[in-house]
Amino acid sequence: MLSFLLSLVLFGQPAPEHVVGVRIQGNTLTSDAAIEQMADVPPGTAVTPTLIADVEARLKARGRFERVEILKRYASISDLSQILLVIVVDEGRVAIAPMKNGQPARAVRRRGPPLMYLPILGSDEGYGFTYGALVSMPNVAGPRTRVSIPLTWGGERRVGAEVEKRLDTPRLTRLRTGGSLIRRENQALDAVDTRAQIWVRGEREIVRALRAGAWGGFDRVAFGPDTQVVRRAGVDVALDTRVDPMLSRNAVFVRGSLERLGLDDGRAPIRTILDANLYLPGFGASTIALRAYRDGVNEPVPGFLQVLRGRESTLRGFRAGEVAGDSTAAGSIELRVPVTNPLSLGKLGVRAFVDAAAVYDAGARFADQRFDRGVGGGVWFTATVLRLALDVAHGSNGSTRVQVSSGLLF
After folding, report:
1. Which is it for the CA torsion 340, 346, 348, 352, positive or negative?
2. Collapsing DSSP states into helix, strand and coil, what is residue 263?
3. Burial (CB count <10 Å: 0-12, 13-18, 19+), residue 124
4. Can you spell out the DSSP letters for 87-115?
5. Which of 98, 184, 357, 369 could staple 127 via S-S, CB 3.0–4.6 A?
6. CB burial of residue 42 (10 Å; 0-12, 13-18, 19+)
7. Cβ neighbours for 155, distance < 8 A, ≥ 6 positions apart
8. What is the CATH topology of the domain spanning 15-111?
9. What is the C-alpha to C-alpha distance for residues 365 and 327, in angstroms, rounded to an integer?
10. Which long-range contacts (CB under 8 A, 24 or more apart) does 385-388 make?
11. Measured on CA atoms in the order 7, 11, 14, 18, is the torsion positive or negative?
């Protein structure tokens, strides 16, 4: 404070700040001169407390930019009154139109929603081979949102819509809601399962690797000749220290969930799921993946709520969906060996595995169950968020099966 007062006495009041220049960044369609004209900040303009907000408002009012940010910088280290304004703009989706009819290539604004497509292939749920696509549109329902539309055919026919919103609130970090129509054939019980679903889910990331969630929803299920409404409410916690879900080492993924199922007859079975995975380093760049899985209820449930043998890829080498029960328990050990460089965007690898699983009714003793086994190997491929796998396995009943699966890694 004393030095500041002495400087005022010796050197007088500091000179008022004024703009000496403007720099433009991020523009492709709009020229620097046009943006400077819109900003209307000629050299010599006094820097007032509201200047930056006023300039941002003028640029946003033109409707040509999705985002505008203005940074205040000093133009000289010897004269702190000289201010340089850096205007950063985001013009949204821009494409380069190639040369045509003698006209040079030029930047143009892309029209229509920014669609992203991901294939859906596989038979993980045990209802036959399913194929289709997931269509996603980012930011169409506001900033940090995503609208996804799953469309599948084959073993599971599904159409729906899901909306995701990422938040920065203390209680929630992600909110999701959606609805869908699903039709599939339950091979184990020889019945057609048709469902209309609506649901909402909230999540909170407690720390980087730990998140918790809660959800609620309604299912209207037509299963064979019967129709019921199931009211769902549940919570889950997940610990995930993996960097790459296929090649992580010295990592864990553990998820536990508890769900209450309200049935029309007044019963409310409780379903619990535990999915524990441990990833250990093998020889060279290989990974050893260990898994223990249980999905069970505390009392008998209708057929459309029973689990199928082989669900969640717990038992390869058997025809999925032939056996149903109230609960399932499974375990596997898998050796994964990458073929390509682990730093590559697309990763290709091979694997060998041993699976064991049992499906049983509520109230049956776990120790009395007979576990079927599957032994085999396959190839897998990942690229950003997409995973594809082809496995061949031999079951302890003498059958040999080929399984194709896909999934999203986020």
Report:
1. positive
2. coil
3. buried
4. EEEE--SEEEEPPBTTBPPEEEEPPS---
5. 184
6. exposed
7. 123, 125, 127, 128, 129, 130, 184, 185
8. Ubiquitin-like (UB roll) (3.10.20)
9. 11
10. 385/118, 385/409, 385/410, 386/118, 386/119, 387/245, 387/246, 388/121
11. negative
The span from the CA of 205 to the CA of 213, in Å, is: 9
Pair 287, 248: CB distance under 8 Å: yes
DSSP 283: S
Beta bridge pairs of residue 180: 160, 197
Q: Report which residue type is found at 302.
A: P
**Cβ-contact 327, 360 below 8 angstroms:** yes
Query: Which stretches of the chain drop beneath a pLDDT of 50?
Result: 4-6, 8-10, 410
348 bridge partner residues: 381
pTM higher than the cut 0.85: no
Give backbone dihedrals phi and psi of 4, rounded to 5 degrees, phi first.
-65, -45
Instruction: Parse the chain into domains and list their residue ranges.
Output: 15-111, 116-408
pLDDT score at 9: 46
Helices (H), 40-193: 51-61
Look at residue 13 in the predicted model and tell me its pLDDT. 59
| Dihedral sign for Cα atoms in the order 204, 210, 215, 221 | positive
- Residue in the structure block whose two tokens are 């950003």: 384
- Residues forming a β-bridge with 119: 133
Domain 116-408 has CATH 2.40.160.50: yes
